[in-house]
Specification:
ten-stranded antiparallel beta sheet, eight-stranded parallel beta sheet, 10 helices
């Protein structure tokens, strides 16, 4: 172990030997640090709540040893407490990682008593006002908190201490989708997060990440209260906070034991390019994520948004599918999509997945064969854990349904015009049925791509048949059964899914609310009071989380930012469509469209073509803690034409805003000149003052610039309308002695424009040996029209 790590561990061990659990600091006596930390157990004995604080001062210490966990090599020591009056013994294991700046700890409980208990929660870390403090900076702090939502659709973002957490007004209609036990009262400054959260001081730019490396054993919650009333000291930020593992009142029988997932702490600088990287990578290793390096992100077509009713019921028919399949096959050279996915509407009822609706009386296996014969991968939507109350499954197998403590079927939310319920996956028959549905879809019907939706239903609170399991364990085992049934080659996309238990199982994950053909949410086409809903279907809600959860991409899974709706027949403005396309492209995630292909005009098809192939890379969120919804995004690219940056500036307001891109704010040096080319306006600017002034951005609009250093005397590729990256379409580049030759590549018949900077007067230009016209811009750049089939060689000569 390195000397610095060894010294940190000796200091850490010395604190524990003194019975002090206020040891979470970077170095002894320096900031940031946690002091006065406590923890404990909450368990029920019948109706009586038993609360037990940890008593480390009287515990036995097991010395340091090096060992391996899935996340990597650690150096750990243990504290073993004697059994309490109930006979419950506790062991705390603390560890420092060798390959990440993380402090880890976990709690193991063993019931050596004569009676069972229901474990309500295990407090991993708790601070009380006046008895503990968080010191992030030496000066008075301005605190903010990044909260990660429980499941795919849940709002994730930054709160200030004067904010209130985002909540739904739809009560039991929507509340089951938001259950993670950490819903504090709607008070200013009081927030909660699932899996991990980050508390930061906006002045010092120092932050603290608290969370869990996995949720295989329990859902982990992080709650803070950063109200002014809890900041008694003028010198330090002292919020109340708690990190705990949710026991869900799981039964711990005499002689039984349980162990939490690894909790973790990391101090970080929120302004570095990848502040969450170390934690996300450690969590990926702990969950044994294996993303093939050569696997591209999925592209495709989905039936849902074009063929669903206003009350979110699928209306698609086989004729609809065949019509769009034929249209896409005809465009395959220009629009090379991969997946053709059948969404909701084929099944007889949600829950009855092996029988079919009237339009699909012949089933879907034949359609899968047609899709494959047309050159696409067949995809199918399923929701294997949720159950419609009118389904045959609910009638024939009432014992498979998850029930409340009063014996009624649980409420899994209002969908398909009914209050749905859920399978109890601890019932062998229910688990076997869910697995059989997936096995049949993949291995009998022929769908190798599955979108698995409403997966949260497996983790709705209820009275499980196996009462010894937490909700996270139930969901994890259900997902493992589905993966085994599908096989390793099937591509699984999770949706409506709690994030933690799915890491390492799904290939892709929806990381946002459903999009929609409108900017704000509406219910039955009524916007009004529903507009503030944070996770109802809406373009605004989908795009928000696509950015706030962008760091998860290609670490935990491939991010799925949901479909694009390109057709003109929506309520989205052109500016909003450009914003949606920019976010999807910059996020690096899946790219699916959901339109009647025949209604897309030439311009909308051109937009789609410019997004293919997807860039696939993970962006940097520049203003992560400074904007409610990130407005500044940077994506670094490289290729045949060197290295460049895509810089985005979004306007999330309802009013036109001045567009300014300050290069220092994006982490670029100000002491040199840059070319900046706006993809959507196809205009180029040379900046020599470290800032681009780009006019006004319309409401909900974007400016997307390809930024390259300006070097006098050297030719430069500035961009094109061929691909949103404005450079990845170039596959070869060579310039010398007044001559430039380069190659372009794009699928199908291509027509567009490219823009160059050349250090002299242009003599002539050719595309595939045919001369092309030359357009000179006021900025002194050269625009060339190009037309080719799949690839082109461009030759340009200029006067030296």
């Amino acid at each position: 172990m390195g000397l610095e790590l060894h010294n940190r561990f000796l200091q850490f061990q010395a604190h524990l030997e003194r019975g002090e659990f206020d040891v979470f600091s970077t170095r002894d006596g320096q900031l940031p640090a946690l002091q006065g930390v406590q923890g404990g157990l909450q368990a029920y004995i019948g109706a009586r709540l038993h609360q037990r604080p940890w008593r480390w001062e009287s515990a036995a210490l097991i010395p340091e040893r090096r060992t391996e966990i899935d996340a990597g090599a650690i150096h750990q020591l243990q504290i073993v407490e004697s059994p309490d009056e109930l006979g419950i013994a506790c062991t705390a294991t603390f560890a420092l990682m060798e390959n990440a700046p993380l402090l880890l700890w976990k709690i193991s409980l063993e019931n050596g008593g004569s009676q069972g208990v229901e474990v309500n929660r295990v407090d991993m870390l708790r601070l009380h006002p006046g008895r503990g403090q968080v010191n992030l900076a030496g000066d008075p702090a301005e605190l903010a908190f990044f909260a990660n939502g429980w499941q795919s659709w849940s709002y994730s973002g930054v709160y200030r201490r004067d904010d209130r957490r985002k909540a739904t007004r739809l009560g039991p209609l929507r509340q089951p989708t938001r259950l993670y036990d950490a819903n504090p009262p709607l008070q200013r400054g009081r927030f909660s997060s699932d899996m991990f959260g980050v508390l930061s001081d906006l002045r010092s730019r120092q932050g603290m990440l608290l969370g869990f490396l996995s949720q295989q054993q329990a859902f982990g919650s992080f709650e803070v209260d950063i109200r002014d009333a809890l900041l008694p000291s003028p010198n330090h930020a002292r919020p109340w906070l708690c990190l705990w593992a949710n026991g869900d009142r799981a039964w711990l029988a005499p002689g039984a034991s349980l162990e939490t997932d690894w909790a973790c702490l990391q101090y970080l600088d929120i302004d570095v390019p990848d502040p969450l990287g170390a934690y996300l990578q450690a969590a990926a290793r702990q969950n044994q994520v294996a993303l093939p390096a050569d696997r591209g992100v999925p592209t495709g077509w989905c039936s849902w948004y074009q063929f669903s009713s206003s009350d979110y019921v699928g209306t698609v028919t086989p004729n609809d599918l065949r019509r769009n399949l034929s249209a896409l096959a005809g465009l395959r050279d220009e629009i090379p999509l991969q997946v053709f996915q059948i969404d909701d509407g084929f099944q007889s009822c949600s829950g009855d997945w092996l029988t079919f609706s009237e339009p699909f009386v012949q089933g879907v296996a034949g359609l899968a064969a047609e899709i494959r014969a047309s050159g696409f991968d067949p995809g199918l939507w399923l929701a294997p854990f949720i159950v419609h109350p009118s389904s045959r499954l609910a009638v024939d197998h009432p014992d498979w349904l998850l029930r409340t403590r009063k014996g009624r079927p649980v409420n899994a939310g209002f969908f398909w015009n009914a209050f749905t319920t859920a399978l109890d996956l601890t019932h062998p028959g229910a688990l076997a049925y869910a697995a059989e549905v997936v096995r049949t879809a993949v291995h009998e019907w022929g769908f190798g791509y599955l979108k698995l939706d409403f997966l949260f239903a497996a983790a709705v609170p209820g009275r499980y048949r196996d009462s010894s399991l937490t909700r996270a364990q139930v969901l994890r085992r259900g997902l493992e059964a589905i993966r085994q049934a599908a096989g390793p080659e099937a591509f699984l996309l999770g949706c409506g899914c709690p994030l933690g238990p799915a890491i390492g199982i799904v290939d892709a994950m929806r990381i946002n609310a459903d999009t929609a053909s409108r900017w704000r949410p509406a219910v039955w086409n009524i916007e009004g009071i529903f507009a503030p809903e944070p996770d109802l279907p809406a373009a605004r809600n989908a795009l928000h989380n696509a950015l706030t959860r962008a760091p998860m991409h290609r670490r935990w899974w491939i991010n799925d930012p949901d479909c694009l709706q390109l057709r003109a027949q929506t309520r989205l403005s052109l500016a909003e469509l450009q914003t949606a396309c920019s976010v999807v492209a910059l996020s690096g995630g899946s790219l699916l469209v959901s339109d009647e292909i025949a209604v897309l005009d030439a311009e909308r098809l051109r937009i789609l073509a410019s997004l293919l192939p997807p860039v696939g890379l993970r962006p940097e969120i520049v203003d992560w803690f400074d904007s409610t919804t990130p407005a500044a995004v940077r994506l670094d690219l490289g290729g045949a034409v060197g290295r460049w940056h895509l810089l985005a500036r979004f306007n999330w307001t309802d009013r036109q805003q001045p567009a300014e891109i300050n290069l220092a704010g994006y982490g670029l040096p100000e002491d040199r000149a840059y070319w900046g080319r706006d993809f959507w306006r196809q205009s180029t600017t040379l900046s020599e003052a470290g800032c681009f002034q780009l006019g006004d951005i319309p409401p909900h609009g974007v400016r997307l610039l390809a930024v390259r250093p300006y070097t006098p005397g050297e030719p430069a590729y500035l961009g094109s309308d061929l691909h949103i990256s404005q450079g990845l379409e170039v596959i070869a580049w060579k310039a010398a002695h007044g001559e430039l030759g380069f190659s372009l590549q794009r699928p199908g018949e291509v027509q567009g424009k490219i823009e160059l900077y050349l250090p002299g007067k242009v003599r002539q230009a050719a595309c595939n040996h045919e001369r092309v016209s030359i357009e000179l811009t006021p900025q002194g750049t050269v625009v060339l029209p190009v037309q080719f089939d799949s690839s082109a060689k461009i030759q340009v000569e200029w006067e030296v």
